[in-house]
């Protein structure tokens, strides 16, 4: 039987839900495992994310959700539209001084502006809730759609790096980006995501 997982990993005392015009971002639970696995099980997604395996199984989704609940090294939100899960967005804290934005959407939801909307919500959450001066992000050079999302959010290109991709079993070039708190504050003309404690 699937059960709710404690939501103590949002790096604040109480978990929250982020709401935008079209999206709700919330903590994923074990009840979401089958949906996460179904959405993520596409090689095109895995090829553009460094750590997503392919095939992506329900066991992979269970490990992901449990890792979040156990205080893992990332903050992640399930992206929903009309109560339908469509992807994941979050901040990776593996290098505490270098937090990095990450996201993926199910293939059926590409090209609708959901990625930008979700990224803006998590960026606002990050800068509102944390004292960091900058947020990093990366896009595989063969993924112009992701680069476009980052540029719409104010990220500035800092160069090309090589990163290891699990599904490729090798390294691939990625465009590296940085968004400073000052740039975020000056560009923050997008509607803020509402945050409510649950």
List keywords for this structure.
about 200 residues, alpha+beta, six-stranded antiparallel beta sheet, three-stranded antiparallel beta sheet, about 30% helix, globular
Whole-number mean pLDDT? 88
User: SSE order, as H and E?
Assistant: EEHHHEEEHEHEEHE
Q: Main β-sheet: number of strands, strand sense, barrel status?
A: 6 strands, antiparallel
Rg = 16 Å
Low-confidence stretches: 1-14
Strand content is: 25-35%
DSSP summary: helix tally: 6
Helix percentage: 25-40%
Strand order of the largest sheet: 5-4-3-2-1-9
Name the structural class.
alpha+beta
**Strand segment count:** 9
Distance between the termini: 23 Å
What kind of assembly state do the chains in view correspond to?
A: single chain
Q: Rough shape?
A: globular
Mind sketching the topology for me?
Blueprint: E1 16-19, E2 24-26, H1 33-40, H2 43-46, H3 58-69, E3 74-81, E4 84-92, E5 100-105, H4 114-129, E6 134-140, H5 144-152, E7 156-165, E8 170-180, H6 181-187, E9 194-197
Antiparallel strand pairs: 1-2, 1-9, 2-3, 3-4, 4-5, 6-8, 7-8
Helix pairs in contact: 1-3
Could you walk me through the main structural features you see in this protein, from its secondary elements to its overall organization?
With 198 residues, the chain is α+β, with helices and mostly antiparallel strands. Helix content is 28%, strand content 31%. The protein has 6 helices and 9 strands, in the order ββαααβββαβαββαβ. The strands form 2 sheets. Strands 5-4-3-2-1-9 form a 6-stranded antiparallel β-sheet, with helices on both faces. It has a 3-stranded antiparallel β-sheet with strand order 6-8-7. A hairpin with a 2-residue loop joins strand 3 (74-81) and strand 4. Helix 1 (33-40) packs across helix 3 (58-69). The chain is globular, with a radius of gyration of 16 Å. The two termini are 23 Å apart. The relative contact order is 0.18. The model is unreliable at 1-14 (pLDDT under 50).
């Amino acid at each position: 039987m699937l059960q709710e997982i404690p939501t103590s990993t949002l790096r604040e005392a109480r978990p929250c839900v982020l709401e935008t015009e079209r999206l709700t971002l919330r903590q994923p639970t074990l009840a979401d495992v089958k949906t996460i696995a179904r959405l993520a099980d596409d090689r095109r997604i895995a090829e553009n994310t460094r750590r997503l395996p392919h095939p992506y199984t329900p066991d992979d989704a269970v490990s992901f959700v449990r890792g979040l609940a156990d205080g893992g090294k990332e903050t992640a939100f399930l992206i929903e539209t009309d109560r339908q899960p469509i992807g994941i967005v979050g901040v990776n804290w593996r290098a505490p001084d270098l937090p990095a934005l990450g996201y993926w959407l199910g293939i059926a939801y590409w090209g609708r502006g959901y990625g930008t909307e979700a990224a803006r919500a998590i960026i606002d959450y990050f800068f509102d809730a944390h004292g960091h001066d900058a947020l990093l992000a990366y896009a595989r050079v063969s993924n112009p759609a992701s680069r476009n999302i980052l540029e719409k959010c104010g990220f500035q290109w800092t160069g090309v790096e090589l990163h290891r991709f699990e599904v490729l079993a090798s390294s691939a070039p990625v465009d590296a980006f940085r968004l400073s708190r000052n740039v975020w504050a000056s560009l923050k003309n997008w509607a803020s995501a509402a945050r409510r404690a649950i």
